[in-house]
Amino acid sequence: MWCSRMAVRRLQRITPLALASNMQREMSTLSRVYVTRQIPPEGLKILRESGQVQFQLWDSDDVPVPRQELLEKVKGVDALLCVLTEKIDAELLDAAGPNLKVLSTMSVGFDHLALEELKKRGIRIGYTPDVLTDSVAELTVALLLTTSRRLIEATHEAKTGGWGTWRTLWLCGYELANSTVGILGLGRIGVAIAERLAPFKVKKFIYTDVVPRPELASMINAEYVSFDELAKQSDFLAVCCALTPETKEICNKNLFSKMKNTSIFINTSRGGVVNQDDLYEALSTGQIAAAGLDVTVPEPLPTTHPLFTLKNCVILPHIASASYTTRNAMSALAANNLLLGLRGEPMIKELKL
Predict the structure, then answer these.
(1) Going by C-beta distance under 8 Å and a sequence separation of 6 or more, which residues neighbour residue 282?
(2) Residues catalogued as catalytic
């Protein structure tokens, strides 16, 4: 009996050490991942329960990971899960080293990624389109209505004592009924915006893109027009195109000069597609009626920027996809893309280079 008790005691002493050793061996076989932000819980849960990775996390959602910290943390990782605030360039890829095989971005846009560098190194890229279509479309409609019906101005007047006697033209705006809505860049989001605007009795939808998109256009009965005609005809112009070298600052003086002075300009795509100096000029001189922006350059836009001085410019802090449902779905998709990429399997949404 004494020997048995002694054996048990020895086992009790040895077992934790053996377990620790086994755990270390298991951990050494797991892929190393760095997550650059405290992403929504669905994605973190998928990573934790996968049994496939060990990951480190920049544990904040309020402040982006400092660049030097990021360059240090990516050393030797097999995969990286990032958001659009992180610039993934040659410097970072050099710091990560040859182990990095998978990059998963929790975004639909990819202008923060050095695509040629990633392609050259054979790094696979996952991203998160589709899941945010509804959220972005809803926000675009909300921003359009807020801008065209001057809701921010009206709220301010009500709060600050400007609400006096009834006046015939005070705070008048522009209706969607019988209007022409133009879409710059017709994709899933553009279609979803038009579907939500149609019940407002819009008379006509028009669009322009690099090529006609008859299949998508047929879903909303939209007519393909030239870039100039889009500017001339649109009562409301919604920008939905991706930021590429071809679309950089495509919304400039040339566009605004052709628009009606009653037109409303809305951008929920990327700030870089707009020349903000030209937009300020168009708004401040009455060349166009108003603008609503969810995206700017830079982000955040400095509070001293001239656009903030204009009553006819509504600026939001890039919140188009900011619903609990959508952000969790983006997080889950980014995590699953990463895990599939590490296994050498097709990602759910992969950016083909």
Answers:
(1) 253, 256, 257, 259, 265, 288
(2) 318
Assessment of whether the complete model's pTM goes beyond 0.70: yes
Q: Give the Cα separation of 11 and 322 in Å (integer).
A: 53
Q: Give the model confidence (pLDDT) of 100-155 as tens digits.
A: 999 999 999 999 999 999 999 999 999 999 999 999 999 999 999 999 999 999 99
CA distance 344 to 353: 16
Asked if 210 contacts 187 with a C-beta cutoff of 8 angstroms, the reply is: no
> What proportions of the chain, in percent to the nearest 5, are helix, strand and coil?
40, 15, 40
Q: Please indicate whether residue 153 or residue 19 has the higher confidence score (pLDDT).
A: 153
**Which amino acid is it at 89?**
D
Query: Which tokens belong to 210?
Result: 């690099």
| Residue 302 near residue 280 (C-beta atoms within 8 A) | no
% of the chain residues with pLDDT over 70: 92
What is the mean predicted confidence (pLDDT) over 312-323?
Answer: 98
DSSP annotation string for 18-81: HHHHHHHHHHHHSEEEEESS---HHHHHHHHHTSSEEEEE---SSSPPPHHHHHHHTTT-SEEE
Which tokens is 177 given?
């009924």
Contact 22, 333 (CB under 8 A): no
Query: Alpha carbon of 7 to those of 11, 17, 343: distances in Å?
Result: 6, 16, 43
Q: Assess contact for 232 and 261: CB atoms under 8 A.
A: no
Assess contact for 126 and 347: CB atoms under 8 A.
Answer: yes
Percentage of the chain beyond pLDDT 90 is: 91
Among 99, 76, 71, smallest CA distance to 87 is for: 71
Could you give the residue ranges of the DSSP H alpha helices within 225-323? 227-233, 253-256, 276-284
Q: What is the largest CA-CA distance in the chain?
A: 101
Other beta carbons within 10 angstroms of residue 249's beta carbon come to: 17
